[in-house]
Design brief:
- The complex is a heterotrimer of chains A (about 210), B (about 475) and C (about 250).
- By secondary structure, chain A is of the alpha/beta class.
- Chain A contains five helices and twelve strands.
- Chain A has one domain: NagB/RpiA/CoA transferase-like (Rossmann fold).
- Helix content of chain A is about 25%, strand content about 25%.
- Chain B is an alpha/beta fold and about 475 residues long.
- Chain B folds into two domains: about 290 residues, Rossmann fold (3-Layer(aba) Sandwich), CATH 3.40.50.10420; about 70 residues, no CATH class.
- Chain B is about 50% helix and about 10% strand.
- In chain B, the strands form three sheets. A six-stranded parallel beta sheet of chain B has the order 1-10-7-4-2-3, with helices on both faces. Chain B has a four-stranded mixed beta sheet with strand order 8-5-6-9.
- In chain B, helix 3 packs across helix 12 and helix 16 crosses helix 18.
- The radius of gyration of chain B is 26 Å and the shape is elongated.
- With about 250 residues, chain C is an alpha/beta fold.
- Chain C has two domains: about 120 residues, no CATH class; about 110 residues, 3-Layer(aba) Sandwich (Rossmann fold), CATH 3.40.50.
- In chain C, strands 2-1-3-4 form a four-stranded parallel beta sheet, with helices on both faces.
- Classes of the chains: A alpha/beta (about 210), B alpha/beta (about 475), C alpha/beta (about 250).
- The interface between A and B is large, with 74 and 103 residues.
- Strand 9 of chain A pairs antiparallel with strand 9 of chain B, so a sheet runs across the interface.
């Protein structure tokens, strides 16, 4: 709720008094690049390059190889206990691992997990950004925050080149969104970049080539 | 380290020329500042070189921010309506005291004895932490730099990299002492791991968080926070109660406007294409994140800045600190000399204006007007133009106060103006200067030492003595000889 | 081609040899020079120190002196920046319609020296000879105010015998800043020390620029330190020929 207070009125009155000739939103001139010029292959190559620049691990696979690739990445991680959003496709839940499906997991249970597997909404190649809109296959925000290892399944058809293209893809603005451009890092000490302060230290991406 | 704590309260801080002195005599600090700003600048330059539409982005960002300021009332009301509809509570604070009171009130109602905080310069602006401590509420800073400052009882010296004035061994000393880690090395990896362990439990158990906001989106009532370490996501997601403090100028019209701002911000602030994490949330979402959400909109002098046509552009700022990183003055002094939580070029114009020009009057003069800041500002704030405007206001204050009677500089400027008004007076003044400076002029024609204001020059520089003939005199003589 | 020389108050008083070099150079290039005897100051010092009303009166006087003048040449980029960047605002706030009109008509006829040479006269080779190692400092007003770009470089590159040494951090402010050098003398000196490190590292014999303001700041420190380098205004380099090297600035 909002509380109509004297301050609210005072502030708005002050503002109104000095903004007499507002301009229209449509008049804002935009000449920056909105659509990228790269072909599909170059765009995907850029996405992978940028992800690897951030020390994210990237493997590619064809759509039918996905479940096996997931299993392979999980095995390579040396981890056993994984959380998964409730809406994650069943065929992604590789056998031989301890899956905690999030149907209202306690924080302590998520904290005990060693990794998390999710889908994504979009990838932005220009900055190597993975966009989560926290749908049922992407999971609550805490799922991709507490575990130290995050495996993200990104389809080639979900990858755009520029940030404005991502915004064009949103049918409506998301209520929740997390934009991940690499594992957490700090450069606060002598500008030396250190990975993994809080948040997952290991980001793994499977790029599913559904556009080949 | 610090020879005496810097005072970052513009009401009590010494003027910039005085505050700069101990810093100038601190080679470690100057080295740290130069190193940090060099790193960010070179990364920024590299990324901008690959962005062919950088200037177009700047133009659009400037236009969007100008448009917002012209329509600020409507956008704030729209934000309020949408945020409220999504389950948030919006509060309005006229000044720092009111903002503190609102926040304390919420914390009291929630019976909070501890809060976790994401770095927000706005909370430093309103001096929130001391007020919380006084009410028995401990605020844990969770940004690595802010942790360092809080544990080391240091003051921030930069808007984006607040601890850049400290090097690794200074940080090691602080952590070892306050976290009880005697064997801690000064390897930044070890230091970071120490912070990670120290804070894990706090994130999981403290139910109340305070954040700032990089952007407020009017169209949706959403808030965006940009960060690197993940502590932001921790504070925004794990607690039950979230309070977001934001200056009223932080609002953007539409969600899609982030497509411009997010391309500019990280490149300008940290030399990255995007910061590791950007979080966007709208009100309250059942089952995900805080179930009670408050936004405190802060005026604290911003609406009076809005009133002034030239100074209004100060409010376009998106707090990237690119101006700090490029400023040749900041490079020498770091942030503490500015006596404000907002230092550097933006601080030099924002701080005195937030103080309604009653304090920090030395800050608009803490610049050589080189213009490098304007060149790098992603939203095209013409900082030199605002500096000049504020200088004029400070001088007008002096005029009104008759304090100028004792101010040698002021008297000198008045005299010079009178001299320049007349060619005859100008020529006479030149002749007088020649005579007055003669005793100070050595055989080689140079002056090594001058009294009074002149000493400010000669303490580090020689001065050419006045030639016996001015150019004008030479020209006149030449004309006479018919050449 | 006729042109009127606005020498600037500080060049007139402290650096007449720069003025003499401008005269020698432009007359060699066939320009008939005039000099308005009543000129004093453009008002920059007052404008930059917050004394707007006083700056306005000087600006008004300037326009009054040069209203009818065909072309004005100024061997100081900071003064031209004052005229281009700040006069409009001053006249908008404090002037009247006539003054604004007169200024609008005058403005395109005012040139900084390097602009005058390359844009108005269309020359880059001015027939100069200066057989020395020289480094060039880009003064802030010329760089960011006037956007002179590579004009000074193009002129220097055509000087016979001159070896141009690139200056690291060429575009970093030297720290003079007008009255800043007095009001914030210590910070100004710190900036000077940093700048001087880059300048001295070139091992040039001369450091040149478009502004004697920067040069007296840099040169003042060089002289204090008995450095083996001197400062010299660009005009003096361009005026120099085999038969007529620049006057030594002591």
């Amino acid at each position: 709720m909002s509380l109509p207070t004297a301050s609210r009125q005072l502030i708005l009155d002050c503002i109104r008094a000095v903004t007499q000739n507002p301009s229209a939103y449509a008049k804002v001139l935009r000449t920056y690049i909105r659509r990228g010029g790269l072909g599909i292959q170059e765009k995907l190559k850029l996405m992978i390059e940028r992800l690897r620049e951030y020390d994210a691990d990237v493997v590619e696979c064809a759509p039918k190889e996905l479940p096996a690739t997931i299993a392979g990445q999980l095995a390579l991680s040396g981890r056993q206990v994984f959380v998964a959003p409730a809406g994650l496709p069943a065929e992604w839940l590789a056998a031989g691992f301890d899956w905690k499906i999030d149907r209202g997991l306690e924080n302590s249970e998520i904290e005990r997990a060693e990794g998390v597997v999710t889908a994504a909404f979009c990838g932005v190649a220009d900055s190597g950004t993975i966009v989560l809109h926290h749908s049922s296959a992407e999971g609550r925000r805490i799922l991709t925050l507490l575990p130290d290892w995050h495996l993200c399944i990104l389809y080639a058809s979900q990858v755009v080149e520029t940030l404005p293209e991502y915004f064009d893809r949103c049918p409506l603005p998301p209520v929740l969104a997390t934009y991940i451009s690499g594992p957490s890092a700090t450069a606060d000490i002598e500008m030396t970049r250190i990975k993994g302060v809080h948040g997952p230290r290991f980001l793994n991406v499977i790029l599913v080539r559904d556009e080949d | 380290m610090n020879t005496g704590q810097p005072v970052l309260d513009p009401r009590y801080a010494p003027g910039f020329p005085i505050a700069a002195l101990p810093v100038l005599r601190n080679p470690q600090l100057r080295k740290n500042v130069a190193h940090a700003t060099d790193v960010i600048q070179s990364e920024r330059a590299r990324l901008i070189a690959e962005k062919s539409d950088w200037q177009e982005l700047r133009s659009a960002a400037s236009a969007i921010r100008n448009h917002v300021l012209e329509n600020l009332g409507s956008y704030l009301e729209e934000f309020e309506a949408r945020c409220t509809a999504a389950g948030g509570t919006v509060h309005w604070a006229s000044d720092a005291a009111e903002a503190r009171a609102i926040i304390l009130d919420i914390l009291c109602q929630e019976q909070a004895s501890e809060v976790i905080k994401i770095k927000t310069m706005t909370s430093a602006e309103i001096q929130l932490n001391p007020a919380l401590e006084a009410a028995g509420i401990h605020a844990y800073e969770t940004d690595l730099a802010e942790i360092i400052l809080q544990l080391g009882e240091e003051e921030p010296s930069h808007i984006v990299v607040p601890a850049l004035h400290l090097n690794r061994s200074q940080v090691r000393e602080i952590f070892a002492r306050t976290m009880g880690l005697k064997d801690l090395t000064d390897d930044p990896k070890a230091l970071t791991a120490a912070a990670r362990n120290y804070f894990r439990q706090k994130f999981l158990t403290i139910p109340t968080a305070i954040s700032g906001a990089n952007f407020l989106v009017a169209e949706t009532g959403s808030v965006a926070v940009v960060e690197s370490e993940g502590n932001g996501r921790m504070c925004l997601t794990l607690p039950r109660i979230l309070i977001t403090l934001a200056g009223i100028e932080k609002v953007l019209p539409r969600f899609a406007d982030l497509e411009v701002m997010l391309q500019l911000l990280a490149r300008s602030a940290t030399g990255e294409r995007m910061s590791p994490y950007t979080s966007l949330w709208t009100g309250v979402t059942a089952g995900d994140g805080p179930q009670r959400f408050h936004v405190v909109l802060l005026d604290n002098g911003r609406s009076s800045i809005l009133a002034r046509p030239i100074e209004r552009q100060t409010l376009k700022c998106i707090r990237c600190a690119a101006c700090l990183n490029t400023c040749p003055v900041y490079r020498q002094t770091g942030g503490h000399a500015y006596g404000s939580v907002y230092p550097g070029p933006i601080g030099a114009i924002l701080t005195p204006q937030l103080m309604k020009m009653e304090f920090a009057q030395s800050l608009p003069f803490a610049s050589s007007l080189c213009g490098a800041c304007y060149e790098v500002c992603p939203v095209k704030i013409n900082i030199p133009q605002v500096l000049l405007e504020l200088r004029s206001q400070v001088v007008n204050q002096e005029r009104g106060q008759a304090a100028w009677l004792g101010d040698l500089m002021f008297l000198g400027m008045k005299a010079a103006n009178s001299i320049f008004a007349s060619a005859r007076r100008f020529h006479a003044a030149q002749a007088l200067c020649r005579i007055a400076l003669h005793p100070f002029t050595r055989k080689d024609g140079w002056i090594h030492s001058l009294p009074s204001l002149g000493a400010k020059w000669t303490q580090t520089r020689d001065l050419r003595g006045l030639p016996s003939q001015s150019f004008r005199q030479w020209w006149a003589a030449r004309a006479k000889e018919g050449r | 081609m006729r042109a009127s020389l606005f020498i600037t108050c500080y060049n007139d008083t402290l650096f007449p040899e720069t003025g003499r070099a401008v005269v020698r150079l432009l007359e060699r290039l066939g320009v008939a020079l005039e000099f308005h005897p009543k000129q004093t100051c453009c008002g920059q010092m007052h404008a930059n120190t917050g004394f707007r009303a006083e700056a306005f009166s000087q600006a008004k006087r300037f326009v009054g002196l040069y209203r009818e003048t065909e072309t004005v040449v100024v061997p100081s980029s900071s003064c031209v920046a004052m005229i281009r960047d700040q006069y409009p605002g001053l006249f908008e706030d404090l002037g009247d319609e006539t003054l604004r009109r007169d200024f609008a008509a005058l403005l395109p006829r005012i040139f900084e020296l390097s602009e005058f040479l390359t844009d108005r006269l269309g020359v880059e080779d001015v027939g100069a000879y200066f057989p020395h190692r020289v480094t060039y400092h880009a003064s802030c007003h010329s760089l960011r105010g006037l956007h002179v770009g590579d004009r000074p470089m193009r002129l220097l590159n055509k000087v016979r015998g001159l070896e141009l040494i690139p200056l690291e951090n060429m575009d970093r402010c030297c720290g003079f800043g007008g009255t800043f050098s007095i009001k914030n003398a210590e910070v100004s000196s710190a900036m000077l020390a940093t700048k001087l490190q880059d300048v001295m590292a070139t091992r040039a014999e001369y450091c040149t620029a478009l502004d004697n303001s920067c040069l007296m700041h840099l040169g003042g420190a060089m002289h204090r330190q008995y450095a083996a380098m001197r400062t010299i205004h660009l005009a003096q380099i361009l005026a120099a020929t085999e038969g007529a090297p620049p006057e030594e600035a002591a």
